[in-house]
Structure formats: structure tokens, C-alpha cells
Write a structure and sequence with these properties.
This protein is an alpha/beta fold. About 25% of the residues lie in helices and about 30% in strands. The chain is built from 6 helices and 14 strands.
């Protein structure tokens, strides 16, 4: 079983690469394939259980979009066929239509997800998030220069209980298109959310959904859920 990391040389902020390292600790038979900006993505030619991309700088996002653009039709076909993908932080914006920034020219995305992003570089947003994925409680963090706005109908990945969704006032957080799972949450997401990680392992086809350091991970998760549920704690900081 393989997991592919797209462009780890740029998608390496906010501790996001620990998501993949944690999956490897949970499943020692998992083979990690790292694809750089100059290489053809492996999932286009072979069976890959999970494709992952994490948070990047604005320049990194532009480089990632240009690296993937030659394969756009093939990527769309793979997503339509059910390829499992997880995008965290601002990686989802590579798959959106465009990013408008108050300090840079428009960056064109791949146009796969019906969203665009608006950046205000002097107004960085930092917050914690409490939400749900079905019946599973989700916790995480956001640190971003702007929010995403849907340009059409697209299922949300998470439902917001406390904190900020896709943008201020939205109860929807992230986007889901078939098995493409996209969220602005960092943290890293999988370390913070062992129940969600178990679900992802099952979606990948893992024989066993047991987690590395599961007892400690679950205890930390329960404490964080309790803290984020406290109405006296302001999610935005």
C-alpha cells in the first residue's frame, strides 16, 4: 500500500508533513512516495491508497499549481474515479479556481474544486476549530491570510461548531468531492484527531486501523475537545 506526498519541498509548513509520518507509524507496511515539483505524480500511473499535500507559501502554491497543470485532465479523471486525496491548510487552494491577493497578482488554480480564495496579507487569521465529520468530533487550528469562498455547490468536509468555517459566518468547513478531502485545518490534522485517522486508514484499505501511541493520542484528543468546547475560550486569537 502506497501514500504519495505531493511536493514536500514546498508543502511542508505548519507541521503538516507529520500527517504522513504518523500514518507511516500507524501502518509500517505503508510505502511513502515523495513527488517533487519536476516529476509526474505517481498516482496517475499506479495504485496509490492516499495522495496528500500540505500547507505551502504563496510561491509554493503557484509552483504546485503549475507543476500539476499539465496533468489536469488525468487528475480530474482520477478524482472522478474515486482516488482518495487529503489536502490540508492552503493546499486546497491549488485545486480551486484562483487566489486573489491584495499584494500580488491573481494566481490561477486548477479549477477542480469550485472555490476561490481572497488573501489580505496584513490581516492574518489565527483560530482553533471544533467541528464534526459525521458523528466524529474534529479539532484543529487555522493560520491563514485569507478564506475560501464557494463558486458553486460542493459538499463540506466538516461542520463547524466553534471557530470559523470556510469564511466568517459559514458553518461549512473544507470541501469534499468524491474522495477528495480538503480542509484549511493544520495542526497536524491526523495527529490531533485519532478517530478521523482511523476512518482515513479504513478508506485507504489498511488491514488494521490501530494507531501508533493510540492511548496517549486519544487522551490528548479528549482533553483538547473539552478545552475547545469551553464557551469561555475565544476561538480566534
Amino acid at each position: 500500500m502506497k501514500a504519495e506526498v505531493l511536493f514536500p519541498e514546498v508543502g511542508n509548513l505548519s507541521g503538516d508533513l507529520m500527517n504522513i509520518r504518523y500514518l507511516k507509524q500507524c501502518c509500517d507496511k505503508l510505502e511513502i512516495v515523495e513527488t517533487d515539483l519536476k516529476s509526474r505524480p505517481a498516482f496517475l500511473d499506479e495504485e496509490v491508497a492516499l495522495v496528500y499535500m500540505g500547507t505551502a507559501t504563496e510561491t509554493g502554491l503557484a509552483l504546485a499549481a503549475e507543476a500539476l497543470r499539465p496533468y489536469l485532465d488525468e487528475i480530474r479523471a482520477k478524482i472522478d474515479a474515486g482516488q482518495l486525496m487529503l489536502l490540508t491548510g492552503n493546499a486546497q487552494e491549488v485545486f480551486g479556481s484562483y487566489i486573489d491577493s491584495d499584494q500580488a497578482e491573481r494566481m490561477e488554480g486548477l479549477g477542480i474544486l469550485p472555490l476561490h480564495a481572497e488573501y489580505h496579507m496584513m490581516q492574518r487569521h489565527n483560530s482553533f476549530f471544533l467541528g464534526t465529520f459525521g458523528e466524529t468530533v474534529i479539532v484543529g487550528f487555522k493560520s491563514l491570510f485569507g478564506h475560501t469562498y464557494p463558486d458553486g455547490e460542493c459538499e463540506a468536509l466538516f461542520h463547524t461548531l466553534r471557530g470559523v468555517g470556510r469564511s466568517g459566518g459559514s458553518e461549512d468547513e473544507g470541501y469534499r468531492m468524491n474522495n477528495l478531502l480538503a480542509t484549511a485545518l493544520t495542526g497536524p490534522l491526523l495527529v490531533l484527531n485519532p478517530p478521523f485517522t482511523k476512518t482515513l486508514l479504513r478508506m485507504m484499505g489498511a488491514e488494521d486501523d490501530a494507531l501508533a501511541f493510540e492511548e496517549a493520542a486519544m487522551e490528548a484528543y479528549r482533553v483538547r475537545v473539552a478545552e475547545f468546547s469551553d464557551e469561555h475560550r475565544d476561538p480566534i486569537y
